[in-house]
Every structure is written in structure tokens, then in C-alpha cells.
Amino acid sequence: MPLPSPPTSLLPALQQVMRPLVRLMLRKGVTYSAFADLLKQIFVDVAEREFHLDGKPPSDSRVSLLTGVHRKDVKRLRSKAASEKTSLPETVSFGAHLVSVWLNNSPFCERPGQPRPLVRLASAGGECSFDGLVAAVSKDIRARVVLDEWLRLGVVQLDDQDRVHLEAMAFIPQRGFDEKMAYFRHNLHDHACAAVHNLTEAGEPFFERSVHYDSLSQGGVNQLRESVRKEGMQVLIGFNQLAAELEERDAPPPDARQRITIGLYFYTEPNPPEVACPTRTGSS
After folding, report:
1. N or C: at which end does the chain have fewer Cβ atoms within 10 angstroms?
2. What share of residues in the chain are helix, strand, coil (percent, to 5)?
3. Could you tell me whether strands 156-158 and 114-115 are parallel, antiparallel, or unpaired per DSSP bridges?
4. In a domain, 60, yes or no
5. Do both 97 and 72 map to the same domain?
6. Which domain-ending residue is among 170, 205, 240?
7. Contact 98, 134 (CB under 8 A)
8. Separation of alpha carbons 168 and 98, rounded Å
9. Are residues 185 and 215 in the same domain?
10. 79 with 175, same domain?
11. Which residues face 56 on adjacent strands?
12. Per the domain annotation, does 30 fall within a domain?
């Protein structure tokens, strides 16, 4: 049975989606041949995991037919299939949890969403200190180790009174490529999964909407950027607070746990005059 031809709009869309990823690869020294090898592995892995017949894994021949990868390569690649990791690395997820407690839990915040500056040492601030914050989340990690790493990443700052200030309203490292790459992988993966689900699956779609204009001045862009930074952050803080409350109030058994990602982003670039036309609003 011949495979269906892809929709005519699919390949041009993939070409556009891949451009920023190729830009990243070229800037970081990833060549076409290296990425092609990686992509071949992903094609085989996805076909093996998600394209079963009658509940049985596909044969090498069927994987080869689905993917276009030579059967000899399919056999080799299936023997070393990489496990898919969708969760954040432990150090990053611990940092995100710590910031969530700082943002939402007394005595570390004035009220949810307004973190207090914390005296560094428990000897000076008791439970309402950075030492106390780390101890509230884990007894196994020294607060000084966390503080040094967060200072390196730009997540916090120390003032002249030895108080620790949260610099971001979520665990968003300002420095540290590996830490930022962990969020890049996690967020882009989940956004793509939501979009692909909406294109390919029946039933209720995942929420995925955007607003786009193409004839704004630089001043208008700057105003919108600041509005998204402030108001969008408050929206995410509200979702974070609700998720923390639900997790505590309605904790499921380990085999029934669900993970979620809620995102918000802002992007701008010059719009070439030859393609610009007034656009009131749009969503997708």
C-alpha cells in the first residue's frame, strides 16, 4: 500500500520552522552531516515508538518504508535507540521548585507573586532567610552551593545588607548556556507537541493562540514588549500559584501523575516593506 503524499503546505511550513533552528546549529558548530545523522535516529525512534500495528512494534521493513531510512540503518539505529527525556534536568527542576516556594509561600513572600528579599543566613533571619528557603525544599543541599550557582547564573543578587534578591520571577538563568538550553529543549518541545496534536488529532485541541501585527513602529514594539514582560509575567505567576495549590490539594498517586507546560512568548523583527501590509490582528 503506497504511503500518502504529504499535504502541499507541510514542507514549506517545516522549512520556515527549521530556519531558526538551523541558525542556532550553524552558530554553535553543528554541521549538516551531524544533524542529518541525528535526524535519521529520530525518524527511526518515532516510527518505532508511535506507529505500531495491532499493538505490536513495527518491523524493520515497515520502519524503513515509513521513514525512507535504509533497512540496514534501521536495524543498527533501533539497537541504540535513545530514550526520550521530556523532563527538565534535576538541577533545573530543583531551582524552579525553589523559586516557586519563594514566590508563593509564607514567610518568603509578601503575598503570592511578591518575593521578599531574604537575609542570607539563618543565624540572622531564622526561617525567613535564604538558608531557610533552601532548607524548606531540601535538607540535602547546602544553601551556599545554591546561592553561588544562582549568582553565577544571574538568578539572584546580593545587596550591601547581605540580603538575597530574586532577579527573575521564575527560574530563568540570565547566564549559563546549558541551563538555558534545558528550557529551550523543554519549552520548544512542548509547544511543538501542542501544535502537532492540534494538526493531527481529533478531539479537544490544546490552547495555542497568538496575536500578530506587522505595521508597528519601534516605539509601539517597545511598549508592547514591556507590557508583555510585566502583565504576561503576572499571568504566569497566577497559573504557577494555582498549579502549586492544586498539586498540594489534589495529589494523585504516582502512576496517575500528569505534567503540564504553560508558556508565553514575545518576538519581533523588521518587516520588509515589500511584504508589509496593515494587519489589524490575528490569531492561530
Report:
1. N
2. 55, 5, 40
3. unpaired
4. yes
5. no
6. 205
7. yes
8. 12
9. no
10. no
11. 53
12. yes
Residue 183 and residue 214 share a domain: no
Q: What is the pLDDT of residue 1?
A: 56
Note whether 210 and 120 are within 8 A (CB).
no
| Distance between CA atoms of residues 108 and 240, nearest Å | 16
pLDDT at 205 over 50: yes
Q: Which of 66, 84, 102 corresponds to the end of one domain?
A: 84
Distance CA 77, CA 180 (A): 29
| E strand intervals along 23-181 | 109-111, 114-115, 118-119, 156-158, 163-166
Q: What is the pLDDT at residue 276?
A: 46
Tell me the residue range of the domain where 95 lies. 86-205
Number of structural domains, the chain?
Answer: 3
Percent of the chain surpassing pLDDT 70: 88
Out of 4-18, 157-171, 195-209, 259-273, least confident range: 157-171
DSSP H or E stretch at residue 114: strand 114-115
Residue 1, in any domain of the structure = no
Spatial contact of 147 and 130, defined as CB atoms under 8 Å apart: yes
| Residue 25 CA to its chain's centroid (Å) | 18
- CA 96, 94, 137, 174 torsion-angle sign: negative
Does a structural domain hold residue 15? yes
Do 95 and 67 reside in the same domain of the chain? no
Alpha-carbon distance of 37 to 76, in angstroms, equals: 12
Q: How many helices (H) and strands (E) does the chain have?
A: 11, 5
Give the pLDDT mean for 214-240.
92
Spatial distance between the Cα atoms of 95 and 146, rounded to a whole number of angstroms: 8
pLDDT at res. 278: 47
